[in-house]
Amino acid sequence: MSGMHLLPTTTLVFPWLAASGLALGEAALLLDLGSRLLGWGLSTPWARLWRVLAIVAAAVLLSSPSLFYFVAPGNGVARIAFYVSAFVGLGLFLNYAFPYRWGVQRLDELSLAGAATCLGSGLMLREEGATVDGIAQQSGFRCLILSDFHCNTRKRLASLQSHVSRLQEAERDAVFLLGDYGEVRSLLPEVVAVLAQLAGPCQVFAVRGNHDLERGRGGLLVRLFEEHGVILLSNESRRLSGRGVSLVGLESPWGATPCVSPESSVMTVGLCHTPDALFLMERLGVNVMFAAHTHGGLLRLPGIGPLLVPSRYGRWLDRGWFRHRHMLLRVTVGMGYAEERRPAEALLVTLRW
Question: What's this model's pTM, rounded to 2 decimal places?
Fold first, then answer.
């Protein structure tokens, strides 16, 4: 009789548990691999096709043993392959739910600190402070960080002008623009002209993002930045005279791996559109890095966080402050989608060391 009670468990429960684990693995695979491929490089028709094919191929490869099992459930090899694929699927799900952090620590105490002021249209100006360890000199450097404008309509351009007018009132030592200015070529001259108004008593530095290097917009931005006095850091460094601060601007991984030698200074600040360059920045001796590109993650769920983050390292580097060894990283959600009731921010960060 005991054998009769065990039979339904082994023939029905275990396969359905394995199928559930496989289904979770498939979902995690699609989301995680999709995030990593989105964070890899520029978007072209061939690149998009390759990413879709890679995701489909991975999903088919993971699920194919289950198809053989349900066609021939009595086959021992098919059964073993099915349970192995289910185990792999469960592992993929756990890796997705609890992503490997690559030694990167989230600093919630910094992310929650500071004041926040609404600038209108859903845009928040967040004032934050961070202390750079390991440097004896005590000083302060106040920088305004803006990114991910995606200024593609006249309405967004008008909002940007309004926001810039408010931001001009902020005391600042430098302005950092982190890319993705807009995908409409005809609007870019006006977008850059508006952003250049932030120069005032300080210099404006910029890097380009993945959308800026598509369809020939990269060369146009080089000319526009030069025309309006915005300093483009395209895989190069620059020292700020009298401040003890040097800047490193990278456009990795959108282009070739850069060879940059930071200028000698007390503190080095790194600028990049994507946080995926954090390990390269650390090797260059950067103390604090500012990045964007993730938009804070997409499809955020309470208690879970974002389901999609366009990063080669998965969904860990979504937004906020992070630390890896001695380097600080701040990932901003950007300001381009404020009018769509999505998180949008401008950062005013005071660095002390």
Answer: 0.85
